[in-house]
Design a protein that fits this description.
The chain is mainly β. Helices cover 0% and strands 53% of the residues. The chain contains no helices and 22 strands. The strands form five sheets. Strands 2, 3, 5, 7, 8, 10, 12 and 15 form an eight-stranded mixed beta sheet that branches. A four-stranded antiparallel beta sheet has the order 1-16-17-20, with no helix packed on it.
Length: 280
Amino acid sequence: MTLSKQTPTLLPHKFLVIICGLVGSLLLHAAPSLAQAPLFISPQRVELFDQRRSEVLTVTNRTENTASYELGLEDYSMSEQGTTMRVERLENSARRMIRFSPRAFTLEPGQTQTIRVVSRRPNQLDPGTYRTHVVFREVPNPNITDDNKTPTTGNMSFGIGFKFNVAIPIVVTAGEALSSVTVEGAEVQASSVIVHLKRNGNADAAVHLHMRLEQSTGEKEDIVTDNVIRIYRERDWVKRSVVVAWPGGDVPTSGNLIITLTPAERNDTDVLDEHIIPLS
């Protein structure tokens, strides 16, 4: 097991989009991708620590209509299956540490607004990561009618009666924050593998999960690459169902399935943990 320094999550909440994880690792469930979203926000994750206690978000209205937004802070916790849910109390919440301005704004089509986010941490704060989310909530525009609403994207339309909300994670790191993830087991199924993962340490954790099929001849074939797994600090164990396209369509009856974890940072191929499952 290797401990790694934490250098700090889109999950659905009805019409709320939560952005979590690294660029290129957005989880989408019944929500439009950011490329289709009416509000573009950069960066998509705020990370504050001892040497950097403020960040600036750039927000752009990508629609053809004037849009107004109100901002607030909310906490989200992770379930054993890796989904997120809003909670009123979170043990390692950063909500009381965060200040931001402005708290509301209106954007014309194509217009950009900057949001300044600052952390004000207590003097005595235990080492580790603390997390909250800044939520952008659209204020309905009474001037938009069914005749001029933005066309439907997927199963969402941005017209009258619909409010687009998006949450950006804010992670505050105090002192030395360490985390590790290990594979504790796996269940092979017809079209997926359920992986049991254990997190250790005082920080959120993120890893890349890879799967290779090792034939009885020794030949190896990648079947899952760069699947990003993020585990929040409050969750020690998670089960993730990873979709697998088995060569030939069926689960092999010989050889091995090799599950490997590497750091989530790009271009870092160090093996953090490896688990081998006989398929015979």
